[in-house]
Design brief:
six-stranded mixed beta sheet, Rossmann fold, four-stranded antiparallel beta sheet, binds adenosine-5'-triphosphate, alpha/beta, 37% helix
Length: 252
């Protein structure tokens, strides 16, 4: 039966990269409730991107299950693909095309018809402040403008669950505000947000539920308020340093 309460349910997840390089997950469990603003934080190399890639089915688990709104992601069904949007850390669009051409391409790929693509494209370019460059080639854009194009592509099909891997890395204050406010607006309208970032003060304003990950293990999960109270900390950064230590991470 489809579980209507959980956006993500990861059960007994086992994963390692071929050749056992990099992070290993062994019996990892994680639940994210529908409608939540969930943040996943951890040091470099902790396994955040790997875990997000397992959530979206981009990587396949060696063991256990990943369910997205009650559907097994390993089946790669059109139904599952329509339910989530993914905003990857690396730019995932065609640099030689314009925002409009990219949104047309990714909108069609997501199964939207021409009319839906046109409506969503106009709406998103307006919300994300890209109207005046709608027909310009993206490779000429600044980092912040490219981040906004990346985000527009991830939400073109209005997904129920939006998974974002460091969506504000390298952007200026204006773009950061615009992106975070847009994410809060999406969440107000029901979109579940699953987000990772190293911008911990930004994350404090966005996330209500928080998980910390280190070396492939979830070492804490609760509401941000409860975690801060439990560890007598007044910031996510303080909590992060207490739970993950102060050493550099040089895993290769
Ligand atoms: N394709 C791959 N093959 C082998 N190892 C990999 C691969 N991708 C990542 N790794 C390794 O797995 C570990 C976890 O990487 P991952 O990108 O998930 O970490 P992260 O928490 O997202 O880090 P960051 O904060 O630096 O983005 C790292 O040691 C990384 O080098």
């Amino acid at each position: 039966m489809v579980n209507n309460e959980l956006a993500i349910k990861i059960s007994n997840l086992g994963f390692h990269y071929p050749g056992n390089d990099g992070v290993t997950f062994s019996g990892l469990n994680l639940k994210v409730k529908k409608g939540e603003r969930f943040g996943l934080f951890g040091p470099n190399g902790a396994g955040k991107t790997t875990l997000l890639s397992l959530m979206t089915g981009l990587l396949s688990a060696n063991q256990g299950t990943v369910e997205l709104l009650g559907h097994d992601v390993s089946r790669h069904s059109n139904k599952v693909n329509a339910l989530f949007g993914f905003v990857p850390q690396d730019f995932s669009f065609y640099q030689e095309m314009s925002p409009v051409e990219n949104l047309e391409f990714f909108g069609a790929w997501a199964g939207l018809n021409r009319r839906q693509i046109k409506t969503r494209t106009d709406e998103l370019l307006h919300i994300l402040g890209l109207e005046n460059v709608r027909n310009k080639q993206v490779d000429k854009f600044s980092g912040g403008m490219k981040r906004r194009v990346n985000l527009a592509i991830g939400v073109i099909h209005d997904p129920s669950v939006l998974i974002l891997d460091e969506p504000t890395v390298g952007v200026d204050v204006q773009t950061r505000h615009a992106i975070i406010n847009y994410l809060l607006e999406l969440n107000k309208n029901g979109t579940t947000l699953i987000y990772t970032s190293h911008q911990l003060s930004e994350a404090e304003g966005l996330c209500e539920e928080v998980a910390l990950i280190d070396s492939g293990e979830i070492i804490a999960q609760n509401t941000l308020t409860e975690l801060l109270k439990e560890h007598s900390k007044d910031s996510l950064e303080g909590l992060f340093l207490e739970l993950t230590g102060k050493e550099y991470r040089n895993d290769v």
